[in-house]
């Protein structure tokens, strides 16, 4: 049986809509869709075969499902949810293991080993090089205030974001090409605000 990714997509997005806490301003259903679209784009740019692209896109849908159960240390919960869902959608064991390892690979600090893991990590961090980075950053800040009790001044937040961007690296040539300059611009914007 061929995996039914469209059905999985609809079911996962519905699950996120129904079960994610409403005070997740950043890790919401829309962010999942953004990462899903980025994973498709990077898979195409990296000329990944269709079967492997489907695995990347499946992993991208499942990345944030752990947030439906808890905020901190949710990555392994996303794997558990994937383990319970994927058998119903026609994935074989070898495919499931690749998907689980992609989900695990986005944990910070990212250390992807395979091209598929590099693509999913770059998709997860695609926003770092986009024009709307500062807006996305503010959404994350709101989440952290609620779920991590991390309250900081504007300058403290910008310093934290600057450090993250300066230590981050894109792994694929596609992400470096598409988002590298934007990330440098976002670093400059952060420095101006500090």
Query: Beta-sheet strand percentage?
Result: under 5%
Our Rg estimate from Cα atoms comes to 17 Å
Shape: globular
What order do the SSEs take from the amino end to the carboxyl end, as H and E? HHHHHHHHH
Tell me the distance between the termini.
55 Å
Helical fraction: 55-70%
Average pLDDT, rounded to a whole number, is 96
Which structural class is indicated by helix and strand composition?
A: mainly alpha
| Low-pLDDT runs | none
Count of individual beta strands: 0
The DSSP helix count reads 9
Protein model, in words:
The protein has 194 residues and is an all-alpha fold. Helix content is 66%, strand content 0%. The protein is built from nine helices and no strands. Helix 1 (5-19) packs parallel to helix 3, helix 2 packs antiparallel against helix 3 (50-62) and helix 4 runs antiparallel to helix 5 (93-105). It starts with a helix and ends with a helix.
């Amino acid at each position: 049986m061929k995996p039914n990714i469209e059905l999985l997509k609809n079911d996962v997005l519905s699950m996120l809509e129904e079960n994610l806490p409403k005070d997740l301003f950043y890790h919401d259903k829309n962010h999942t869709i953004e990462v899903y679209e980025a994973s498709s784009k990077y898979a195409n740019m990296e000329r990944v075969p269709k079967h492997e692209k489907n695995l990347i896109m499946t992993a991208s849908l499942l990345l944030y499902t752990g947030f439906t159960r808890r905020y901190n240390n949710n990555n392994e919960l996303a794997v558990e949810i994937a383990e319970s869902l994927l058998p119903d959608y026609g994935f074989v064991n070898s495919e499931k293991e690749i998907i689980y390892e992609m989900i695990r690979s986005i944990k910070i600090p990212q250390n992807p080993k395979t091209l598929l893991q590099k693509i999913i990590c770059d998709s997860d961090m695609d926003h770092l090089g986009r024009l709307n980075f500062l807006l996305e950053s503010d959404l994350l800040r709101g989440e952290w205030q609620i779920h991590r009790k991390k309250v900081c001044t504007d300058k403290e937040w910008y310093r934290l974001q600057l450090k993250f961007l300066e230590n981050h690296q894109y792994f694929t040539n596609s992400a470096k090409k598409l988002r590298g300059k934007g990330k440098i611009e976002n670093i400059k914007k952060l420095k101006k605000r500090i």
